[in-house]
């Protein structure tokens, strides 16, 4: 059998090139698909057959690609039931050649949720048949979170924007472009249409209160804001009904849709301005009241102390005359009553000065041991008469301090005097101890402990109030004004402490107060040298008999008392009834000293002193205030006017003699500081 072979050959070079090119294209596609973070997929139309899904599917869906190839339903099963109908509808449209973009949620096997943005396309053959479908799925979970956050922020901002009590307004060159509800309320607009697109000039009076043109000023503030940033100022505005109000305005620039606009915050400050005005008026009225009270206190001091000076002075004068023992006894009673009345006057004035914030504490070196030891010396006789013992306990407290010794002594005397008054048997203890051991300013507690009648808890709660007493009945036994405790408490508080009482009826009481006192400097710890005791009256008689003194006093009785007192020690006395008369006589005659009252008709003592100091050769003559104005500010006013010293009425003769001696001993020196 003869076999014949028949063959054919074909050139498939181009076909091989195409296959190679297709393979290379597929490789590039796979490389691109695997290099990006999105999922690429291919599927057959009207079928769930997955031809290709990029490996990113495993990262986003949390499932294996091979599992999806084996079971394409895994894709649809992961979609949220709420989103599935819309996704199914989109896929059905794709099968007939419609592209779609859809967003939906999937739940991964671990329970986490992801948002997917899917863009799908249909690819057709040359004859128009759909060959395959493809798509790109992007994980937009983070973008969704950001959108949600932005949305929530916008909601919060809008809520704050609308709930703000201040008017918030946006405006550009054309006028207002947005506002919140507060702006409508403040400007009296019922609808936004009544406010928007109007210019700021529409809601401003033509002329501002300071005379500026509103339109020009508005343009100025807007340009300044756009150029320099935030601006704050007050502005007069008017509502839709024409009524005007004052506003505080803050302008700021913000970028909106690519251009700068002005954001304005407006606050109606009409009530605040009215309140500030009322407060200013109240402050002015309070200051006027304080000045009136100060003037009243000064006048009260003068009007009360002037006759008291006459009473005490005449009483002392009568005692020097040849009188009977019965008259001596009566004069002593007058003197005691005068001293008691003077102490009451001092208490009332002290309390008034404290309440008027005019009591200024000294800050001088004090010997606390000597101060405490002085209390029994001053009150010992009263205690001895009642058979009471006085005991001191102040071990452990610092000795050298800085503070106001006069006010400390006054507080201790108030307590100790009361203790003696209300104690019939037993004793009284004055105790001091450190309560807070501060390095520079220890807090010291002072106590006065008695075995007296005691007081009830209800009485303890009110006895530190001014004019209050434990026994307020008309049959009360012990007397008193009820001011001592109130003054003590106020003094303690001025010394950065407090005061109180612990008491048991029938057993006794412990009255206490605290004071924060500064420790004395190291250079102040040396005790002062004991002053040489001088009998001022005797030395005046010996050295200055015949010296000429001018007494300037408008009260006739006080002139009589002072003239007699000075004449008795050998001084020559001439008088003037007011400051103007004093000025005239000083122009004509040289005096060795001048005693000057403060309050007088025609010309007071201060004005007269200043005028005398301006006279030729009268700058060095000693001028001593002898006045019923007893406040510290009165003392300062006297010194500032050119006086050399200050004596308050009622005049203590020994103090008057000491001051006169100090000034007259200057001889002809011109330095007045030697006399101060």
> Please, what is the CATH homologous superfamily of the largest domain?
Histidine kinase-like ATPase, C-terminal domain
| The CATH topology of the largest domain | Heat Shock Protein 90
Number of domains: 5
- The overall average pLDDT, rounded, is 82
Gross morphology is: elongated
CATH architecture of the largest domain: 2-Layer Sandwich
Tell how many strands the DSSP assignment holds: 23
Please, how many helices? Answer: 20
Helix residue percentage: 40-55%
Short descriptors:
20 helices; five-stranded antiparallel β-sheet; disordered C terminus; Helix Hairpins; alpha+beta; Beta-Lactamase; 676 residues
Overall description:
Strand 1 (39-43) and strand 2 form a beta hairpin. The chain contains 20 helices and 23 strands. The chain has 676 residues and is of the alpha+beta class. It folds into 5 domains: 15-141, PAS domain (Beta-Lactamase, 2-Layer Sandwich); 164-268, PAS domain (Beta-Lactamase, 2-Layer Sandwich), CATH 3.30.450; 275-355, Helix Hairpins; 364-524, 2-Layer Sandwich (Heat Shock Protein 90); 536-674, Rossmann fold (3-Layer(aba) Sandwich). The longest helix is centred in the middle third of the chain and has 50 residues, at 270-319.
